[in-house]
């Protein structure tokens, strides 16, 4: 293996002038091939535009609809979710520098993300965690809290389920083949978006009904700009994404296969979760030239993400005891980084001259739901078996150590980002019992997680005398959940959830090491499970014909409390309990006493023929027992990952006869001053000021001869406010951004 210099000029895509005709031709092809009988008439009309916003759909569950995805025109999934109560964007505004925080849980292993049922997550240090193109998404459902035995081993903050688009979502009634071209532009970073899709289904009465969708999306932009006009260096976007999806109806069963992939290439800082890249000094510019001096501050990043999923559902008519579902998936996220040849430093603490990180997941799940009655009660008894394998491979080059055998001549796994594999085997059982206006749902789950590290190639970090032990370790245990709901009337429902769950330490936590000379050099194979007691409760109110005939109002109030025990964290500060002897080989991670988080949320939504409005409020608080530095301290410390109180208001009008909807959104975030006062960087976050951001939006759906045309216009940060959200780690948000999209059915 040898060093490969990054290209000087990233030639990623064909010229823009050639990309748009290519996408147009892709979408035109099926429309030209369709028979006249299948083609839509010139007078056909699409449904009037409706903007629902984010809304509560079940206790503790919020959904982002396709109309809301269209309205926001977001760059990333994380930005889409930042308007959901209890959910906050964590990190910077670089495309690869964002993760999520739900109910005060901000670590990647605490937020479960699935795409078409496949687990997604990238835990590389100081990087984002989700790399999914929003243009390929149909809907997002956020289930907050660890309140389902269908998921295990982590996900304390909740589960984010992302579903990709289907052909059925795009085909009109009676239409067999169609195409869609979409173009967009954003003013802040001069972003250009182009996407094209083709979709088709079998003829009515076909012996093998099928549906097919193929879609491509391209994004290119310059650097983003802050409110003061300054450039947010190395924040440009250059990405390509694709979706293929096939559904087959096989008698009384249905088979769905989906493939999604994305790739981006760009110059980027090692830590995508950061603000300004330090500018080169005059001496560096004089020595290397301005361009080379800037590039010495960053690296060339080639990022690839892929998801393949197969789902088979079998629910024969008249067989209420049989509702089978089989799910198989494989997903991967990979980053390959390299620094310019002129770099002479090792950058050992930031992945060296070159680095390669790959995270892969394989999953199997088989479940069945049996529906039956026992006396006065009705049951939906569900059971499932699951197996998962998670593998992470890492490698870096320290090019000044190529003559040093203790560093394996420069090629080694980063000691702070080890390679390894985790295999999980699980079984769960859940019974939804209904009696009159009550429902009771007990659930039980068992997980067994086996972790094994890959010994470091460098003898310096594979030394048994320093406590470096990469052998296997197993964690297992039970999870419990109980949900109660009471429909007090046709409009009012009360709900309550209680559960206990746990997570095994991840590969990094078990097998991260330091050299023998460090204060805590050893692997952490003795870590205990991190445990959670989760409580959630509230009420949901729904009413139709409230202010006018045909309108609808809904409101959900939710309170929650999470108690975490034996939380896992790096060892620093007070290394051992005062007054106890210090072992010679301390492990790098340890279990701390725990912490709590709690909060309240209110979500409301109103929809009428000519008016829509929504409002959400979220407040959270939490604290550690002791602190991260000193778990034996008498004074507790606030949790670092608690988001500031947030309110999001949306108000708009609809003109169905014109196919037009328009409105205003306001986001109001309070100051966050309840922060730790003695934690070690980078774990501490500075206090933040409160702020308000305003935006406008409009959507127009053509009618008659223009029935296939749709236009979206929005303005983010209308008043160009300079703000630093708390969980963005002092990174300034982008300034005013005008976004325009045009889509055309063909």
Number of strands: 36
Q: Tell me, what is the CATH class?
A: Mainly Beta
Assembly state of the chains shown: single chain
Sequence stretches where pLDDT stays below 50 over 5 or more residues: 1-52
Helix content: under 10%
Estimated radius of gyration = 27 Å
**Secondary-structure content class:** mainly beta
CATH architectural name: Beta Barrel
N-end to C-end Cα span: 49 Å
Percent in strands:
over 45%
Number of domains: 1
CATH superfamily: TonB-dependent receptor, beta-barrel domain
Number of helices: 7
Mean pLDDT: 89
Question: CATH fold name, please?
Answer: Maltoporin, Chain A
Largest sheet: 22 strands, antiparallel, barrel
Per the principal axes of the C-alpha atoms, what is the gross shape?
Answer: globular
Characterization of the model:
There is one protein chain. This protein has seven helices and 36 strands. By secondary structure, the chain is mainly β. The protein has a single domain (23-745), classed as Maltoporin, Chain A (Beta Barrel), CATH 2.40.170.20. The strands form five sheets. The chain has a 22-stranded antiparallel barrel. The protein is globular.
Provide key terms for this protein.
Maltoporin, Chain A; single chain; 746 residues; 22-stranded antiparallel beta barrel; disordered N terminus; 6-stranded mixed β-sheet; mainly beta
